[in-house]
Specification:
Pfam families: Cass2 (PF14526), Pentapeptide (PF00805). This is AraC effector-binding domain-containing protein. This protein is α+β, with helices and mostly antiparallel strands and 494 residues long. It contains five helices and 21 strands. Strands 9, 10, 11, 12, 13, 14, 15, 16 and 17 form a nine-stranded antiparallel beta sheet that branches. Strands 1-6-8-7-3-4-2-5 form an eight-stranded antiparallel beta sheet. A two-stranded antiparallel sheet has the order 18-19. The radius of gyration is 31 Å and the shape is elongated.
């Protein structure tokens, strides 16, 4: 269960007050629906609301207000009460599953408030509420004693005046480490060239459309209603890289029925996965990747990600690409790993990469050995490195703008795929190192020994070499001194 901090706008509701208890709530629900039948003010047809008087928690909740959201109170019939809930901040917890988890959910929420040091608003007049989903099954139509499955959101009000940030991942409902079985999957696979400008949100729906076309009439598709989207990556894993995507369904491992022409068979290995549950339109699904890769991975050291593949799981909760109530599971394979303990409990948010970082700003590290250490996703802006030994180290995806390197020994060092920003002029208005900050100023080598250096397949347009010793320097095997001598002779007309 994952608690999120969310801001909610003002809400008006038409309600019937009843005693505490499932059957009393159902009586109130039937009454409110009868009274509001055909009322134009009724909105929020997807939810049934149960309001909880927070001030009664101390002595035991004795009554509830059951109803629906309305646009206004002017057209409401006699016999209903009204509640106006002001815009405010809530702790939100989604409860979906067995009815037995009901009490567990409220206990989990109470422990969350205590653990986070956040004050719940239990003052007189403060309401929390449950938003019960009415589709595909309306829980109010089922007697409480026969109800086996629940699907609703708890909104617990947070006391005002606290310095609290809302959740950066509001659509991530749940997260868990789960053991997953091996799966034999069959479907349509295509390579998505993200680095060349092909957008996944355009490419992937096209792959599914091809899958539906090729699978028409295929009798071997499982009737369980599950399907999968398998991402495969070539190492090293990085954000925005190209990938293969397989739109697929699971088939039995011992099934020998031929697969349709144009389809591919793959095997997903068994193992533990970090399962991220996302609820929302498919256009916002990247939030799940940001949550896993940008937040969870950096906050724990018990697990390491297996970056070769990951997959989506679609089941009966997926209500369509544009439906805000669609639920998708993202499965990220992980392994238990011994990793260094965090250097600090403090955190800072890196807006450029969308990551949460350990906050070591202005820290001073002296006389330390990091031999064999791994630095990943490290913000070193404005840092000073003095008397540092980098022998045999490997640097990848390094932002070196405005770096000043003095007294460095570079023997055997390889500079590969070094690029300049694709811009005509520098832009320094934004925060240094962010996407809006661009530096195309020249790279300068001054008073340096670059003898025997090799420049291979490099872009050297506009390079300016001044006052340098060039004995033995060649371009495509031709000594530069001879080229310069020939040029000087041509200028003299010899």
């Amino acid at each position: 269960m994952r608690v999120r901090i969310v801001d909610m706008p003002e809400m008006k509701a038409a309600v019937i007050r009843s005693e505490m208890g499932g059957e009393y709530t159902r009586v109130a629900w039937r009454r409110i629906r009868e009274l509001l039948d055909g009322c134009a003010a009724v909105g929020g047809e997807d939810y049934g609301l149960v309001f909880v008087p927070e001030w009664q928690w101390a002595t035991g909740v004795r009554e509830l207000w059951t109803g629906v959201e309305v646009s206004g109170f002017e057209e409401l019939p006699d016999g209903v009460e009204t509640i106006t809930i002001p815009a405010r901040t809530y702790a939100k917890l989604t409860v979906r599953g067995d009815i037995g988890g009901l009490d567990e959910a409220y206990g989990h929420l109470s422990r969350w408030f205590e653990r986070e040091g956040i004050e719940r608003d239990v003052s007189e007049g403060s309401f929390g509420f449950e938003a019960n989903r009415l589709k595909p099954v309306n829980p109010f139509d089922i007697p409480r004693s026969e109800l086996s499955f629940v699907d609703y959101d708890i909104y617990a009000p947070i006391a005002p005046g606290q310095a609290i940030e809302t959740d950066r991942f509001p659509h991530i409902e749940d997260f868990a480490i789960e053991a997953q079985p091996a799966r034999r999957v069959v479907g349509v696979e295509r390579f998505v060239r993200q680095q060349e400008g092909e957008h996944p949100l355009t490419a992937i729906p096209a792959i599914w459309e091809e899958f539906r076309r090729l699978s028409a009439g295929w009798q071997d598709i499982r009737a369980c209603g599950e399907s999968f989207g398998l991402f495969s990556y070539a190492p090293p894993f990085e954000a925005g890289q190209n990938f293969s995507y397989l739109a697929c369904v699971e088939v039995k491992e011992d099934d020998r029925v031929p697969i349709p022409a144009g389809m591919t068979e793959r095997f997903i290995p068994a193992g533990e996965c970090a399962v991220v549950t996302y609820r929302g339109a498919l256009s916002g699904i990247l939030e799940a990747w940001s949550f896993f890769h940008g937040s969870w991975r950096s906050r724990q050291s018990e697990y390491a990600a297996v970056d070769e593949f990951e997959y989506e799981r679609y089941d009966g909760r997926f209500a369509g690409a544009d439906n805000a109530e669609s639920v998708i599971e993202l499965h990220f394979p992980v392994v238990r790993a011994e990793q260094p303990a965090p250097l600090t409990d403090k955190r800072v948010y890196d807006a450029k990469g969308g990551f949460e970082l350990q906050d070591l700003r202005n820290a001073k590290v002296h006389m330390a050995c990091f031999r064999g250490a791994e630095f990943h996703g490290v913000d070193m802006r404005d840092a000073s490195l003095v008397h540092v030994n980098f022998v045999n180290s490997r640097w990848e995806h390094i932002y070196f703008s405005n770096v000043h390197i003095r007294h460095a020994q570079l023997g055997g060092t390889v500079f590969e795929h070094v690029q300049r920003p694709q811009a005509a002029a520098s832009r320094f208005e934004e925060e240094p190192g962010t996407d809006g900050w661009v530096n195309v100023e020249p790279v300068v080598f001054r008073d340096s020994d670059l003898s025997r250096a090799v420049f291979e397949n490099c872009e050297l347009n506009g390079v300016d070499i001044r006052g340098c010793r060039l004995e033995g320097m060649t371009i495509d095997g031709i000594p530069v001194t001879e080229l310069l001598a020939g040029y000087a002779a041509a200028k003299r007309g010899v």
